[in-house]
Amino acid sequence: MLALPAIVFIFIFYYIPLYGLVLPFKDYNFTLGFWHSPWSGFTNFEFLFNSNLVQIVRNTAVMNALFIVVNVIVEVTTGLLLFELGKRSSKVYQTILFLPYFISWVVVSYALSGFLDPDLGIVNKLITALGGQPILFYNEPKYWVLILVLCHVWKCLGYGTLMYYAALTSVDPEYYEAAKLDGANRVRQAWHISLPMIRPIILILVIVSIGNIFYADFGLFYTVPQDNPMLYPVTDVIDTYVYRALRVLGDFGMSAAAGLFQSVCGFVLVLLSNYVIGKISSDDKLF
Amino acid sequence: MKTASTTVAGIGSGKRKQNQQRFYLSVHLLFILLCVIVTVPFIVIVSASFTNETSLFRDGYGVWPKQFSLDAYAIAFANSKQLIQSYMVTILATVAGTLLGLWLMTTLGYVLSRSDYRHRNKLSFYVFFTVLFRGGLVPTYILVASWLGMKNTIYALFVPALVNSFYVLIMKGFLKSIPHALYECAKLDGASELRIFLRIVIPLSTPAIATVGLLTSLQYWNDWFTSILYTDDSKLQTLQALLYRMLSNMQFLSVIQPAGLDSSMLPQASFRMAVCVLAVGPLLLVFPFFQRFFARGLTVGSIKG
């Protein structure tokens, strides 16, 4: 009764779009509308598989996998170090590291253009000052794997660190005192107490991100490379492709086909990773 | 933790103490370095916005303006119509979206957390399923744009994103910690369900509401995608969408429309950065004060269960 508005809302905005499952099999026409558009069988999928599906799926999965690995390593490490510093002195660092979390990818793009701009960017100014040739970053896909990973870490560092730090502060200090009496040094304490204690939260976060591995961060991949076609070999992901097919090409069928592909893969992956976690430790299972 | 380490250090030799100090020093240095890395991009934007345009073109971006100038801001203020309009749109969408969204998510989370609600498990799955499986962008777009007729209306900016299933589950996790006996007592005293919700649940769950509310409002505030997806009208441009259009479009003159100025006279790069500062600055000054709520929310809501 109380929840009825929300239930209706979820139905409208989450369940009605599921009709889109049949959309890829139609030759959708905006003026004809959904019901009157003719069926087209698998043509949309054929188009999709014949275009650059492999590339966009690979970009999505590989980049996200890189993000997961790099983020976990960096964030857990900074979280542990922050924890070592203790509550009072880490406060300032927490606040500063958290700042990028508050801004959008658009603003990140502004900042990045300050570094990578071909003529005015700081990086190229440094390169030319050292006698090198300026690099046209916005034309060279090969640099963008690194750039995107750096941007992602930069933006998410504070959030992730804080999450692990918060998990660490809830660990009973008696463990550490006992370990100290036994003569365990800092590294051993971190390895044998801190890490196992935050293992559940690490696992959950990693699994959630693995389940979302086919969903790319649209803002990062679209605005940060400034939607530059020359960078598509690295930066074009499923989400940007779907968006372009929809808004630029107006190809609803193909766009929906890519979207469906994404939904199905994501769904399977979540179930799979949950199953795997259940095998490792059934306590950490998500559902 | 800290007291423990000092007592142990007291037992240890002087060398050990020295080692410990060296350790702290290096960790501090590391974090200072990290903080510098994190802040430099912000400084570059601010510095560029205060730099004279010709100097900017000669020397490039930097962390300190070589030739200080307020020209960019002067022009931005003289032509602030679009900026103000965008501020209004963004504030409206953020406030409306956050309040409505909070109401919907809290009520749903509350119902899910009530252990005496019969269809609890079914309803939980109903919500959780949307996390697992989504219709995708295209069907949603058709739904919002053509079936609900929200294209080019302010509603498109906040209505589709009102309920986030993930936040509902966070809410549920938190509300579960309220003892059920409380509801029983209130019922015995003759309180209606709505009264219980308003007088007991909401006051007791303020930390969770604050957290989810802040996350939601941040999401609305930083949203540019919905704006460029559903609106073509510059009157409905959110701040981030305005920034996005300026970034992607070299002819952003058409976006911000400075009156009576030749385009060649306009300081482009610094002007752009100035608008960026004006659009983002106020938020960046405000949000860090609420950071503890974000931190608390992370510990509050174990998503499980």
From TrEMBL, chain A:
Pfam family, one: BPD_transp_1
Keyword entries, A-Z: Cell membrane, Membrane, Transmembrane, Transmembrane helix, Transport
A GO term from the CC aspect: plasma membrane
GO biological process, one term: transmembrane transport
CDD domains from the UniProt entry: TM_PBP2 (cd06261)
Localization of this protein: Cell membrane
PROSITE patterns reported for this sequence: ABC_TM1
Coarse class of the protein's main subcellular location: membrane
The ABC transmembrane type-1 domain, residue ranges: 57-273
Record field: transmembrane: 7-25, 61-83, 95-116, 143-166, 201-224, 252-277
Bilayer topology term: Multi-pass membrane protein
Similarity field: Belongs to the binding-protein-dependent transport system permease family.
Annotated protein name in UniProt: Sugar ABC transporter permease
Protein's organism: Cohnella nanjingensis
